[in-house]
Amino acid sequence: MSLSDIEVAAAAAKAGAKAIHAGFGNPQQVELKGPVDLVTETDRATEAIVIEVLERERPQDGIRAEEGTERSGSRTWVVDPIDGTTNFVHAVPHCCSTLALLDEGEIIAGATANPFTDELFLAARGEGAWLESGGLRRKLSVSKNTEFVNGMFVTGFPYNREGAGYQRIASTWDKLSSISRATRRTGSAALDIAYVAAGRYDGYVVSGAKVWDIAAGILMVVEAGGCICDLTGDVWGIDSAGCIASNGMLHDSLLELVLEG
Question: Which pTM was predicted?
Answer without folding.
Answer: 0.96
